[in-house]
Amino acid sequence: MAKKQEAIKRALGTLEYTLGFEIMNFLQDKDVNEIIVNPDTKIWVDTFSKGRVLTDYTLDSGKSEQIIYQVADLTNTVCSASKPTLGAELPDGSRFQGFLPDVVTAPSFIIRKHTERKLTLVDYVNDGVLTPRQRDIILEAIRDRKNIIAAGGTKTGKTTFLNAILAEISKSDDRIVLLEDTRELKCAARNYLSLKVTENCSMNDLLHDTLRATPDRIVVGEVRGDEALALLDAWNTGHDGGCSTVHSSSAMLTLRRLEQLVSRVSVTPQQETIAGAVDVIVYLRRKGTGRVVEEILSIDGYDGEKGRYITHELR
């Protein structure tokens, strides 16, 4: 075990050296959320204060390629000409996505940092993301054990917002089971179990095993595949008061997105199952360099005759 840790430490040191002073500075800058190195060698950063910014720095293609191979070696993952993409989790929890030719013209990679920011619902009100009334609505939904989905497009802060919801859920005495493919959720509950997807254990597998772990509330970092139906079934069978995130373009389209995910394992769209499991959708939208909760939608049921969800906006 000690030898393995020492090998990882050496590999990480080599990676940090290859990344170079500029990128390491960005990784240590708390205002920077993401670092992007494009095939044209230019380096972009995504910041909390200014949004996406083109820096004055570049990284030559040879070093980008070297970094991708080093990350593959560090994470025991294969990346080669025959498998030219690499998705990996760095030791600090950051997400790494690399691309090699021929899927790109030159090596390129993105590092999405593991955020240490712990925002509360009060912080969101102070930052103008939530109105005081919206905060009260979410707190009431948590107290009433409603299943909540934080939805939004790319980089709308869904996971960070989910952490704020989870912080409130953690104040209860409920046993919480967390399921993630990358460790990003922070749970302060006294009684919780955190599970992570591995190469040999999918999110679907974890959801089925979770039911034997006596959860009161089930929390999934993101629903993005055929595990959607397993989560909906769990939420529908006595495990209420959970939360998750879904990538979508509106609150209503979140329901359609769930139908699409469910259709991967079901010949029917399961609208009644969705309507029975999902109680509240909080939809986040990017606004300039910040975010805003655009809508909170209550899901009241499904009208099979009219073929539509019964919903109303919570204000």
Automatic annotation (TrEMBL):
GO terms for molecular function: ATP binding; ATP hydrolysis activity. Residues 25-282 form the Bacterial type II secretion system protein E domain. This is Type IV secretion system protein VirB11. Belongs to the GSP E family. CDD domains: VirB11-like_ATPase (cd01130). It comes from the Bacteria. InterPro entries: Conjug-transfer_TrbB, P-loop_NTPase, T2SS/T4SS_dom, T4SS_GSP_E_ATPase.
